[in-house]
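Throughout our pipeline, every protein is held as a single compact record rather than as scattered files. The record that follows is passed on verbatim for readers who wish to inspect the format.
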Amino acid sequence: MIRAVMVMNTQGKPRLAKFYDSVPVDKQQELIRSVFGVLCSRAENVSNFVEADSIFGPDSRLVYKHYATLYFLAMLDLIQVLVETLDKCFKNVCELDLVFNYSKIHTILDEIFFGGQVLETSSTEVMKAVEEISKLESASNSITLSQVCFWLAGSIACVFR
């Protein structure tokens, strides 16, 4: 089971952290600091797998990939799926996309993982689901031009009565 998915920059600032165990916020922050401490001390030419018994408990491993200024932590193949999906969604994803699109990032993550279990491994399928969710959200939040004009006309009529 996946215990957490994290994305942090090279200064240790978390850009995405989703824990699949019930972990208090202060413990989450401590875990993020510990993970960053391990990652920042590793050379570029070493394995992407780190034993993490001291951080997450027995039989735990950190699996990470370093892209530009970000560390992605999850299962290695799923890191690729996440990054491909983010690239499709944001057209060459960068750190600021993660900062300013928090809700959309979590929607993508929820399409890949649920409760620490893998749901989808195809970035194409994830994008289809995310696009469908976006359409539904925009449809439920939109007001048509005729509704606005009717509302404005009614408001004006009420003001003058």
Summary: The radius of gyration is 21 Å. Residues 151-161 have pLDDT under 50 and may be disordered. The first helix runs from residue 25 to 40.
